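User: Fold both of these, please.

Assistant: Here is the first one.
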Amino acid sequence: MADDDLPTSNEVILATGRHLMIGNDSFEIIDRSDGVRYVDLFTEATYMNGVAYLSMGSAIYEFGNPPVVEVSTRVRMSMVAVQNLHAMLGNIISDAHKPPDQSKAN
């Protein structure tokens, strides 16, 4: 870890206690995010030199003010990460469209 990656006195790092296995390595999951952001628009979607660039935002409509898009997050991903994201989103969409299992209802 480089000195630039070390937390400052004002930075909060949440150790989740959860781990992600990749091959034989166990990575502890930590959370340095500043919370959950709602996303309903894409402001950037580009691919260059093996890296996908995605920026997402949320539309804000306030009475008396012009509408704006607040950028919620910017991510840069390798093609492997993009393919994994594609597969995960496909699974989420597929599961969301499955009818509920009536046999497990009350």
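And the second sequence with its predicted structure:
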Amino acid sequence: MKISERSSPARYRAALVGAALRSGVAHDALDGDFDQAATTAGLRPPALTESREAVRYALECPVDFMGDDSNQDIAQAVFDAACERRPLVVLDNGGRPVVMVPQPVEESA
């Protein structure tokens, strides 16, 4: 099943972050490198600037669970990612990246 950038932006961006990590693509890579990582993972290359920005941010600013990041820093990173509907990279206790997609629960009217 294809993940759509427009209908499921958070899932698409998380999949693209995973593809970039598997391909060794860093936050400062060229757009073509992200396009190649997407294609290799079976995704369409990102069409929206917002997707590229969200992926670059996630790759540049991972949260380090065992590093210097405090619980407050981790909580703030999760809430920011949820509000901005973008993926978050968390480094686990072994230093391995884990891609998360925090999602706010919408209140019903």
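Residues 5 and 12 are 5 Å apart (CA to CA).
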